[in-house]
UniProtKB/TrEMBL annotation:
<protein>
    <submittedName>
        <fullName>DUF1367 family protein</fullName>
    </submittedName>
</protein>
<dbReference type="Pfam" id="PF07105">
    <property type="entry name" value="DUF1367"/>
</dbReference>
<dbReference type="InterPro" id="IPR009797">
    <property type="entry name" value="DUF1367"/>
</dbReference>
Length: 173
């Protein structure tokens, strides 16, 4: 669930004409669903416009995940896992894939360095847009020479490319 922190900038005066245009754009393009939603949407904007300079508001947004997209990604992961020769269990493979796709948070390590900790791709923790970005980053990583050499150590570079492309092609990639 992405969180956005908004801060009111120094006092800026806008004319009533500019305010009317802004309202027409804000409420004309996007509006709340139903009477209650429209009322909530207007209250939110009114509160935002009344903030004092330096005052902050945190907004949490939710964009529902598309079940078919999630299932397609999971099937792709499974297909790559089943063709590879390096990882014994699926969770180890998924952790490696997340780290390779830079889908991690960085934390201080036990010896002073930083360590990558893979983030969750559960429905509750990841919106559709972020899932699409993770998927694209994972596919790009799987196409890298490093990933190919890790997954199919005995194959040459050309065969590794052919192997991953064969798997990805079945998913329209």
């Amino acid at each position: 669930m992405p969180e956005i922190t908004i801060v009111r900038q120094e006092a800026v005066q806008i004319s009533e004409q500019d305010a009317a245009v802004a309202r027409r754009v804000i409420f004309g393009i996007v509006d709340g669903l139903g009477e209650r939603g429209r009322s909530q949407w207007r209250r939110l904007w009114n509160r935002l416009m009344r903030l004092e300079p330096g005052e902050m508001v945190e907004i949490k947004t939710v964009q529902p995940r598309l079940g078919w997209y999630h299932r397609k990604h999971m099937a792709m992961e499974q297909a790559v896992f089943e063709t590879q020769e390096r990882f014994e269990d699926f969770e180890s493979f998924r952790t490696w894939l997340k780290v390779g796709a830079s889908f991690v948070d960085w934390y201080p390590g036990p010896k002073g360095g930083v360590i990558p900790v893979p983030r969750s791709i559960s429905y509750a923790n990841l919106e559709q847009g972020d899932m699409e970005q993770f998927h694209a980053d994972a596919v790009n990583f799987l196409r890298s020479e490093h990933a190919g050499a890790t997954l199919w150590k005995h194959l040459g570079p050309a065969q590794r490319i052919e192997m991953i492309e064969t798997v990805l092609r079945s998913f329209g990639k």
